[in-house]
Design brief:
Phosphorylase Kinase, domain 1, four-stranded mixed beta sheet, alpha+beta
């Protein structure tokens, strides 16, 4: 992170008498460490824009914390933004070189099975649908084409692109406290970061890992129904403020 504090600044954040700053600083560090974990090339490419927005948010948050605990002068806040665009371009160039130099078979093997490959391809397709002119858009199109040819998919009428335009990657959702739980899923409050970087309060329905294929199929049918409802003043389209994820991430 460009605005990370010095060792003395870190100590000031961790030992500050106000617990609010300590908690916020630890939360930023935890999220930063999660972002730095090694990820498959396809995941990095599919989520490049949202990952960049997250880094921006964390840098800004760290600035606020350091100013709040007196570890940084307010005049230095946001200085990292001066080189932000250039650094993003460097990262994009490096990612492009890695993706282009890697055989499709190896790219696919980095993921955990066919389902993960499908999810990442959906992620890239939906990002292109939302904004076809991003810095990495051409690379995503070319990579999708390489994967479809390698996997023998129908490139003229891809079923995933036609039926799953509602797809939202789990990466963009921060799940909060649960509202209620039933046998097969849990509904929780959450924050959703759209591909444009806007953060919204939402509710999320997530299936548990152990559910059968039938339950997952029922959920997909519900999503399609809500997504395809026509626009009308007397119809509240749940998909505008409610997200549905295919599986819930559990710690145990």
């Amino acid at each position: 992170m460009h605005s990370r504090p010095s060792p003395d600044g870190s100590s000031a954040c961790l030992t500050h008498e106000d617990e609010q700053w300590r908690v916020q600083y630890c939360d930023v560090l935890k999220r930063f460490i999660n972002l730095l974990r090694a990820k498959p090339l396809l995941e990095r490419l599919a989520g490049a824009e949202s990952i960049a927005y997250t880094f921006q948010e964390l840098n800004s948050k760290l600035d606020e914390i350091c100013v709040g605990v007196g570890a940084m002068d307010s005049s230095a806040q946001g200085q990292w933004q001066t080189h932000w665009a250039r650094n993003c371009q460097v990262q994009a160039t490096q990612l492009e070189a890695q993706v282009q130099a890697t055989d499709p078979s190896l790219i696919i093997r980095q993921l955990r099975g066919e389902k993960e490959v499908t999810k990442v391809m959906l992620d890239m397709s939906s990002s292109l649908e939302a904004d076809p002119s991003t810095r990495l858009a051409d690379l995503k199109r070319a990579t999708l084409e390489r994967l479809r040819l390698y996997l023998g998919l129908d490139t003229s009428a891809n079923v995933a692109e036609r039926n799953f335009k509602w797809y939202i990657p789990e990466r963009g959702v921060e799940i909060g406290e649960p509202i209620y739980t039933v046998e097969e899923w849990v509904v929780s409050r959450a924050k959703w970061r759209s591909r444009s970087g806007v953060v919204q309060d939402v509710t999320v329905k997530t299936l548990f890992d152990a559910v059968d294929v039938v339950s997952e199929s029922v959920l997909v049918t519900q999503i399609r129904l809500w997504y395809e409802l026509p626009g009308h003043p007397n119809i509240v389209k749940l998909c505008h403020n409610e997200l549905h994820l295919p599986s819930v991430l559990t710690d145990g």
